[in-house]
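Appendix B. Raw example, untouched.
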Amino acid sequence: MWEDQLKFYDSIVAQCPDFERKGKKMIYTSANGYMFTLLNKDAEIGIRLSKASQKAFKENYNATEYRSYGAVMRDYVKVPETLYTETQLLVDYFKESYNYVMSLKPK
């Protein structure tokens, strides 16, 4: 299952020309000194969003907070499996996440 999710995650990132996937065991994207999407060891996708977007995402898609290695990832939402068929929607959220971290003060 994890390998399939990695391919799925990579297919989303491939549609986003402004950034690329990083990591070998810990899979993520980063920009401006911030990670903004993750694929954890449980094959769950997390997206970092602004507070307003997090709230809307959780309400619209019945999403929850995102955990990686047992820790709650602040500012991240867990992508529910029901959205795995909505590739374009996820591409849009990955791009929104990138734009969000680019709006933050660089690290």
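End of appendix B.
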